Amino acid sequence: MFQLKDIWTFLWSFLLVFPTVSLVHQLGHAFFARIFGGTCTFALGRGKKLFEFGGISIHSIYFLDSFCKYTSLKYNNRLTNTLVHLGGVIFNFGSILIINMSIMQNLIDPDIFFYQYSYFSLYFAAFSLLPVNFGNGKFSDGYAAYRIVRYGDELQLEN
Question: Where, by residue number, does the polypeptide cross the bilayer (predicted)?
Fold first, then answer.
């Protein structure tokens, strides 16, 4: 049962854990875009831009949303485009694996942050993989990957 004392855990999750998951997800897209010769910019949040560094902008409502946009890739084919679109999911799953392995090897202690991070990463990745066309040229990662693999579409990542 949710109690008043749980509000701190909720705020911690909402204001720190979930934005961290979102940041790791966008870093996955950026990583694959860059290794395949593209450039990438992404924003964490909505609202007034607070600051920007290296193609990453942080906005005042940083916990609300995130999006990524990349330029054409130097190595442009179905595989590279699919990896860029699935890069966020790969980073989310990879970070869960790294955390769990680190805990099992006693490199880090189990902590509520890691539990919540893994939970939200799994949640974020699962919803990203759902094949959804949101309209106005915006697609879920899963939908974009499907269209690229199946039809060879060149879809811009902007989600």
Answer: 83-108, 114-134
Rounded to whole angstroms, the Cα distance separating 89 from 37 reads: 20
User: Identity (one letter) of the amino acid at 71?
Assistant: T
Q: Whole-prediction pTM value?
A: 0.91
Token representation of residue 2 = 């949710």
Owner of token pair 């910019």:
41
CA–CA gap between residue 31 and residue 126 (Å, rounded): 20
Residues 130, 125: Cα–Cα separation, whole Å: 9
The pLDDT tens digits for 32-89 are 999 999 988 889 999 999 999 888 899 999 888 888 888 889 999 999 999 999 999 9
Residue 60 is encoded by which pair of tokens? 């005042």
Number of alpha carbons in the 13 Å side-chain half-sphere of residue 43 = 17
Identify the residue whose tokens are 């999006």.
67
User: Which amino acid type is present at position 82?
Assistant: T
What is the distance between the alpha carbons of residues 132 and 139, in angstroms, rounded to a whole number?
6
